[in-house]
Amino acid sequence: MSGEGHLQGAEVAERPGTEGEDPTDGEEALAERLGHRFADRSLLRQALSHRSWCAEQEGAPSNERLEFLGDAVLGLVVAAHCYDVYPDFAEGELAKVRSAVVNARVLAEVARNLQVGEVLLLGRGEEASGGRTKGSLLADSTEALIGAVYLDAGWGPARDLILSLLAERIEAAAEEPDDFDHKSRLQEATVRRGEGTPVYEVEGSGPDHGRHYRAEVFVGGSRRGRGEGTSKKDAEQAAAADALNGLADA
Predict the structure, then answer these.
(1) Reduced to 3 states, what is the DSSP secondary structure of residue 18?
(2) Active-site residue numbers?
(3) Do 128 and 217 reside in the same domain of the chain?
(4) Of 117, 208, 225, 245, which sees the most CB atoms within 10 A?
(5) pLDDT tens profile 68-89
(6) Which residues fall within 8 angstroms of residue 24, CB to CB, at 6 or more apart?
(7) Beta carbons within 8 Å of 238's beta carbon, 6+ residues apart
(8) 203 and 244 share a domain?
(9) pTM assigned to the model
């Protein structure tokens, strides 16, 4: 990979816990796992730069703008793919398939599979609080990487990357779209069990362009699940899925 980019000054700073290591080694390995050779390596570095790390550096931009862009590219790629591949699906079915894969839980799983957490640039506080395993932070990094690939190489490579990461999940969701409507399934289950209707409590945090939401779902006054996402709907769906897992284990 080549290209010095606008993060030249930031590239010499060490990540927490990497003394004696070349931080670019992990980035090279991640690029290989992504299947993309960056013409502008600074885009990859920026995609891995959490704002907590940037606050400790001088002039290093965080991955938040790339995250914003990657979210838009991701949504359009998945929507267009579903539109083309499932011509008989009504709008509601298409929306269910998209929401089943374009959410924080799935994007965090993608990041874990890619071992993104191992190479994130985190500030000391975020490092100490276990930031490398936080679902919301990992999901954000996945979107930022998509945005970086889009800026580096354009629509085609970004589309190919997204579908390589999500095609199997999209196919599974399309086979049984209602299975991924966790809120409806949870309500059916709790009403059937005579426990009443689930109640959701949602809190948002972060800047307007990068809001994150955490949801808790209560049934009969007892908390049954937690979830997070980049929208209230995603967070509630994740909480419902968590609650359904609890019901299955009961």
Answers:
(1) coil
(2) 71, 143
(3) no
(4) 225
(5) 999 999 999 999 999 999 999 9
(6) 11, 41
(7) 103, 104, 105, 182, 215, 226, 227, 228, 229
(8) yes
(9) 0.72
